[in-house]
Write a structure and sequence with these properties.
This protein has helices at residues 3-12, 18-25, 39-62, 64-68, 72-94, 97-101, 108-120, 127-144. It contains eight helices and no strands. The chain is mainly α and 176 residues long.
Length: 176
């Protein structure tokens, strides 16, 4: 394993077993949700989700006309909204399935589909659809997940408990 691969493992893995490390070394990547549920990681990701939702709200405050304006400000607002929706899709994609299973009414695939549309099919993006997403769908997502408008007030559903303790560094370097 190269130094770059080791660094990638340290950067990306919050927890990984020896089997997972072997699987990664063989070039097969990690299986989906192979890591146990991590409350700390989930809270951090949900906090990121709330922060992005607040930023979307700032765009909405500027108004629909400003969002669709055919000037530099309108272009910047649309670009920011698209970026925020991509970020929301990335966050949702990284949420553990145990957390997502707690909220079966959330259209998780639709959130990531919107992300993929904007990221990969930029020429097909409908600005009205983006506007509807930041004005209705993002606030609905935050409300459905019972997230406050503050990153400090995030609580997880009671049924989500860690399966195993998380080590400080799953892949200690040679000087450890």
């Amino acid at each position: 394993m190269t130094d770059t691969d080791e660094q990638h493992l340290r950067d990306e893995a919050d927890y990984a077993s020896a089997d997972e490390k072997r699987m990664y070394q063989k070039g097969r990547g990690y299986p989906k949700n192979a890591r146990p549920f991590s409350p700390e990681q989930t809270r951090r990701r949900l906090g990121d989700l709330v922060e992005v939702a607040i930023r979307c709200g700032r765009i909405v405050e500027r108004g629909h006309a400003a969002f669709l304006a055919d000037d530099t400000d309108g272009e910047l607002l649309r670009a920011a909204a698209e970026r925020y929706l991509i970020t929301i899709g990335n966050i949702v994609e990284k949420l553990h399935s145990d957390y997502k299973d707690t909220f079966p009414d959330v259209p998780w695939p639709a959130v990531t589909a919107m992300r993929n549309l904007i990221a990969h099919h930029y020429d097909k993006v409908d600005h009205e659809q983006v506007w509807q997403s930041i004005t209705r769908r993002v606030p609905e997502l935050i409300e459905t997940l019972h997230l406050a408008d503050s990153v400090d007030d995030i609580t997880l559903p009671a049924n989500l408990q860690p399966r195993t303790p998380r080590p400080a560094d799953p892949f200690p370097g040679p000087d450890a």
